[in-house]
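Batch manifest, entry 17 of 40.
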Amino acid sequence: MDSMSPSRLWLMRAAFLGLALLIMFFHLIPLDTLPRRWAPPDLLIAAAFAWCLRRPDYAPAVSIAAVMLMADLLFQRPPGLMALLAVLGSEYLKTRAGGLREASFAGEWLAVCLTLLAITVLNRLVLGVLSVEQAQLSLSLIQMAMTMLAYPLVVLVTQSLMGVRKLAHGDAEAMGGRA
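Output type: structure tokens
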């Protein structure tokens, strides 16, 4: 199947939604009833960022917003805040995807880490200004660091198992994108 065909595009968009639902399902399974001293990585944001940087057309902003809003509701977070921050972060990374196409993976990873840092700081700041009860700062920082460390593994899985690879220089021009 041609990688630029409309059926492939919609199949991969559905695969993104399916992957997000699978991540949420495994996040909600009660494997341990005792509270943890550490926070697991946010694989949902890591996957969204990996898809946005590799193939921005596979993860439109509407899909990311819907997935993250559903995650806010299911994970009992303040509805809409993390969804907004994730959409803003992914759209920022989409604008940088063209420049990161020729960069090494370290440059891409640094951009993702800085975006995750901004999302974490903005989330804590908004929740603090609105006097919303939030997790300890150490747990937020552990989750941010774990997400940063998990990002290369998420990229490896999405690239090798799901076939979400960076656009070639000619493919971006054919789609009307910036080269």
